[in-house]
Amino acid sequence: MDIKAYSVEELSTLAENIRQKILETVSKNGGHLSSTMGATDLIVAMHKVFDAGKDPFIFDVSHQSYAHKLLTERWDDFDTLRQFGGISGYTKPSESPYDYYVAGHSSTSISLAVGAAKAIALKGEDRIPIAFIGDGSMSAGMVYEALNELGDRKYPVIIILNDNEMSIAKPIGAISKLLSQTMASPFYQKFKTKVEKVVDMMPEGTSYIAKRLEESFKLITPGILFEEMGIEYIGPVDGHNIEALIETMEVAKSLRKPVIIHAQTTKGKGYEIAEGTKEHWHGVSAFDLKTGETPKKTGAKSATAIFSETLVALADADEKVVGVTAAMPSGTGMSAVIEKYPERFWDVAIAEQHAVASMGPLAKEGFKPFCTIYSTFLQRGYDQVIHDICLMDLGVAFAMDRAGIVGEDGETHQGVFDISFLRAIPNMTLLAPYNETSMKKVMVFAKGYDHPCAFRYPRGAFIAEDADVPDYELGESHLLKEGNNILFIGYGNGVGRAKQVSELVKADIAMLDLRFVKPLDEKMLIDLSKKYKKWFIFSDSVKQGGVGSAILEFLSQKQIKDISLTTFEYDDAFITHGNTKKVEESLGLLPEQLAKKIV
Question: What is this structure's pTM?
Answer without folding.
Answer: 0.88
